[in-house]
Design a protein that fits this description.
By secondary structure, this protein is α+β, with helices and mostly antiparallel strands. Helices cover 32% and strands 35% of the residues. The chain has a five-stranded mixed beta sheet with strand order 1-5-4-3-2. The protein is globular, with a radius of gyration of 15 Å.
Length: 142
Amino acid sequence: METTVENNKEILKRLIDEAFNNRNLAILPEVLHPDFVNHQEVFPLEAKKGPEVFNELYSAFFNIFSDVKADYTHIISEGDFIVARDFISGTNDGKLMGKPATGKKVKFEVFHLYRVQDGKLIERWGLTDDMSLMKQLGVIEE
């Protein structure tokens, strides 16, 4: 069991460290199952299934926050599930929801629950602290 738990953690760490933080989107098919589904609505994404979902999502993040980075504080794995808590930080130097860049630095929290199948991430549910992000960008008043 420990091997599976550790392997699952390593898959998620590769997604965060290599694909997101190092912007190596070429590894997405290595860590995301062909039938991958992201259950959290984020932006108006065209892709609905497969590694293309995160290719599109991450590319959007890189355009909105060119220096975006994820720092995970917890990764917990049990059976086929992995939970991660991380903080996303970056400078808003690209358009967000049609609004011009603010130039503001932001840091917001995200929780993710992934399910692993056949050694790859196949499902994701997430919660993002959108309220904190919108306050930091000045979209809503404190």
